[in-house]
Amino acid sequence: MLNDKMYVSRWGTQQIAGYCSTTFQEQQGFCFRVVTPYGYGGYGTQLRSMTACDVSNCLFASDQYTHYIYRADCQNNFTSSQWSVGSNPQGLSVTSSPNLLVALQAAHSLQEYSTNGELIRQIHLQPAGITNPVHAVQLSQSRYAVIHHGPKHQFSIVDSDGELVGSYGDDAGNLNGPYGITVDKRGRVFVADQSNNRILVINPETLKAYPLPLPDCTLNNPYSMHYDAAKDHLYIGEWSGGRIVCCKLLKARL
What pTM does this model have? Predict the structure, then answer.
């Protein structure tokens, strides 16, 4: 979400389409295409994640095929630039700095970059017993929530040194193919539990969880999420369903 517009990457293409965040109508005439670096022959079509930075007014997308992060500058007619991270980049999020946080699945680490692509820090996760991270968000200056697929599908919290703080205890059942993650203004963490077709709400202090009630909607492989703090809305992108689901969050328990 940027400038009250919703941007969606289209799987199997290099295209990013824009939609109105209230009517969900596609913005006619807009379709941004990322330009792959020379030598990839235009086959960099596996955009895995997107995020936006309001401060720099830019969109960012990760490509697991080229191992590049793409930046689209919305102030200059979506002119693009890119930099290589080299290790299967997956989920992206923006920190409070604001910097760009990248989950590197093959390197079993998190990397934090400036919005211009300068490496700020790398957090190695293997010492904490975490491998194959697919998404992460900053919880505070010294803590990060991480979704990872090794040694099992799990939600964990690490500190800025990569030390394990704690992991979800399965009180609401095992995670199965989790990917998307976001945090609301109450501090609740939302996890797109893809193969379980649910959104899990996790208290980052107690690591207790419960499924987000969606009485009028059955999800079909929820994959990505965006939280709009101004409207208190959660937007959920489906992998198999091909929909963007919008729900108004309630002041439910943590």
Answer: 0.90
